[in-house]
Amino acid sequence: MTLPLEGIKILDSAHQYPGPYCSMLLGDLGAEVIKMEQPGTGDPARANPGFFKGINRNKKSITLDLKKPSAREILMRLVGEADVFTEGFRPGVVNRLGVDYETLKEINPRLIYCSISGYGQNGPYRDLPGHDLNYMAMAGMLNSIQDKEGNPIPPGIAIGDLSSGMFAVIGIMAALMARGQTGRGQYIDVSMFDGLLSWMSIRFGLFFHTGSSERPYDAGYGVFRSGDGKPFTLGIAHENWFWDRLCRATGLDEYVGIPSVERHQRKKELVAKLQSVFSQKTREEWMKILIVADVPVAPVKTPEQALEDPQVIFRKMIQEIKLPSGGSIQQVAFPVKLSETPAVMQSPPPELGEHTEEVLLKVGFSREDIKRFKQEGAI
Q: 131, 189, 238, 309: which one is catalytic?
């Protein structure tokens, strides 16, 4: 079976989260991903093995110290045969290292060069340091995630990191398509901040239309607790038919027929009434009742419970990869199901520098060259 990106070679110098997540997805689709790491230390994410293993399968690891002159010789030869180069340094660092887009495209005009940074490669915030939570705050997203007292709640996942990794995949795939028509590579500037603004499109759309960014959530949209104290969610966004089914299933027939606009206006009253009813039975009992009634309902699961979910198992979203040692590790599978060219988890996350000799021999360096590079500290 030929995979969608088979024959595409990616030089991945981006570390930690967005870049590795991006290149893992591309690797699942068949691209050859060569992960470039600093000798001795590697990707800082290696300090947390579970974190590292979660987003670094289907890659080859080589060590390369870009501050060493002979490392530049290695990089330029690799660039000459690459299709994509990714980096996640702060803006300007690649220029100091001599691996910026203008330099590398002189070696390979077909090269697609993708930079992932916090605020992008230009603008007044270009040089500001930051992490996921900072970009969420600046984009208005954190203000949209609040507790009952109106305090912003840091989410338990790095939304900006993951979304920018996905946007990088989209940019790279688009650039590969364009190159097929023009024969030329191009530069891709991915900003975590810009990506979060894009994910805020609905909230901004509300503001542009009404002057308020508040989403008019229905009284039947939220988190409730059952009599045994366990949380569960209702997902009635605006649908009158779901609301009527909920009312009949909970014995609140007097509220059948209340339209969505009124449910929003009377939200505090209606939520309190629902919560009072929900406190009378266990979560398991309410799940059975509401599922039979065809109401959008779901329990709030822990990550561990989610892994055991029958839907997760049926869709084969958790798969095992064999390790060279003979053991195996579990991985979250590629989330898009392709009927003809399904994504494949081909190899486990690499050990630091595991493939250095293999990669260098493949691009024409001799074993004597490799020995010299090691002596010089380039690899």
A: 131
